[in-house]
Amino acid sequence: FRRSKVKRYEEIQERVVEAGLRRIRPCLMTTFTTLAALAVVLLSTGRGSDVMVPMAIPVFGGMAVALIVIFVVPACYCGIKQMKWRLGLSDTDFTTDREAE
């Protein structure tokens, strides 16, 4: 992803999408299995649930936020890099001989 410098504006989004596709499957698998396991704890009503449910709520919320972050962080990163490109600001990921749009 960062081995070579960005030469075109469109390449920024291509790289972010490629990196996202590589890491999204393992992240989603981990998040969904954890949320599924915690859903059982959250819905429990038996003995000991009065202790387990309050402990599971913050973990469930954290995993739900992690699920949102998987999509939001790459979008923000791409937006910032593209804004820097359009404004002509320097960045360590850009080549020095980039073409103006």
Q: Which geometry do the CA atoms define? A: elongated
Strand content: under 5%
Radius of gyration: 20 Å
Mean pLDDT: 83
Q: What is the helix content?
A: over 70%
- As an assembly, this protein is single chain
Number of beta strands = 0
- Outline the low-pLDDT stretches: none
The number of helices is: 2
Kindly, what is the distance between the CA atoms of the first and last residues, rounded to a whole number of angstroms? 23 Å
Give me the secondary-structure category. mainly alpha
What is the string of SSEs from the N terminus onward?
Answer: HH
- Counting structural domains, the number is 1
Largest sheet: none
Word description of this protein:
The protein is an all-alpha fold and about 100 residues long. It has one domain (about 10-85). It is about 70% helix and about 0% strand. The longest helix is centred in the C-terminal third of the chain and has 39 residues, at about 50-85. The chain is elongated. The two termini are about 25 Å apart.
Break the fold down into its secondary structure elements and pairings.
Elements: H1 9-42, H2 49-87
Helix pairs in contact: 1-2
Transmembrane segments: 27-45, 57-80
GO molecular function, one term: xenobiotic transmembrane transporter activity
Pfam families: ACR_tran
